[in-house]
Amino acid sequence: MQDNKFLAGRFEASRAHLRAVAYRMLGSRSEAEDAVQEAWLRLNRADTSEVQNLGGWLTTVVARICLDMLRSRKSRREDPLGPDVPEPVIDPEALESEAQLADSVGAALLVVLEMLTPAERLAFVLHDMFAVPFEEIAPIVDRTPAAARQLASRARRRVRGVSPAPDGDLPRRRKVVEAFLAASRDGDFEGLLTVLDPEVVFRADAVAAKMGGPAEMRSAAAVAELFKGRAKAARPALVDGVPGIAVIFGGHLRIVLNLTMTDDRIVGIEAVADPATLGELDVALLDSQ
């Protein structure tokens, strides 16, 4: 009984995050709730004694459930009410949280996401909106990390073809990049903390990690210390149409920092240095403002 209460508490602590993942994947409040409920049932049936990161495990479970639902939706090809559109948020019992969900995603983006294949949508949502690394996305879509990256990149280009950015505000995101670079160059620890989310996650691919940095790091203080005074060769750039950072040495692109942002703060930083992966990215350097 104690174990059940403990799991229930951990699940409830993750419910809002899981619902956000499911809503962005499915574009339907009712289906998102169904996916989260199914995740709870699977948690009760599973042996999680060896699971070290229950939140990550639950995110993966919800993602798999949503992927199956999207594939089932595509295979049925049922369209009784016209094109799939996101359901309006009208539940008075959860109006505030659901309204925040709708505002953070935007109905227009959800409609655009309907154009993607289920695998593209999953890779794009998990990586670009929730900073899940491609190494964790790959087994969900039964692909290699490089192939999962390509799915997200292709989805990103298709989304950009209709909407200029997921949040429709490239200038604002670019200002965050500029502030991050300025604080890094100046060694301004406090300045870095102002643009980093307290729970920011930094991840580096194998090549970037071999350059002397950590493979993974969490917390704003740790990430700020890592980047303090280290952006001398960094330039603001558009990476697959999204504001990011390019590191140039000897006139060559060496590292790309993919940034995930929420509410004017950086919540995820992915350092990419693998030459093959860099060659697949569309990187356009920007002049500093």
Strand content: 15-25%
Radius of gyration: 19 Å
Low-confidence stretches: 77-105, 162-167
Any idea how many domains?
2
Question: What is the residue-mean pLDDT, rounded to a whole number?
Answer: 80
- Overall helicity: 55-70%
Shape annotation: globular
Main sheet strand line-up: 2-1-6-5-4-3-7
The CATH level-2 architecture of the largest domain is identified as: Up-down Bundle
Q: CA-to-CA gap between the ends? A: 59 Å
Instruction: Write the CATH fold name of the largest domain.
Output: Butyryl-CoA Dehydrogenase, subunit A, domain 3
H/E element sequence: HHHHHHHHHHEHEHEEEEHE
Helix count from the secondary structure assignment: 13
The structure class reads alpha+beta
Number of strands: 7
List keywords for this structure.
289 residues; alpha+beta; Butyryl-CoA Dehydrogenase, subunit A, domain 3; Nuclear Transport Factor 2, Chain: A; 7-stranded mixed beta sheet; globular
Kindly summarize this structure in a few lines:
Helix content is 56%, strand content 17%.
Explained architecture:
The protein has 289 residues and is α+β, with helices and mostly antiparallel strands. Helices cover 56% and strands 17% of the residues. The protein folds into two domains: 2-160, Butyryl-CoA Dehydrogenase, subunit A, domain 3 (Up-down Bundle), CATH 1.20.140; 170-285, Nuclear Transport Factor 2, Chain: A (Roll). The protein has helices at 2-26, 29-45, 54-76, 95-105, 107-113, 118-130, 134-140, 145-160, 170-185, 189-195, 206-210, 220-227, 275-280, and strands at 196-204, 216-218, 234-239, 242-249, 252-262, 265-272, 283-285. It has a seven-stranded mixed β-sheet, with helices on both faces. β4 (242-249) and β5 (252-262) form a beta hairpin. It is globular, with a radius of gyration of 19 Å. It starts with a helix and ends with a strand.
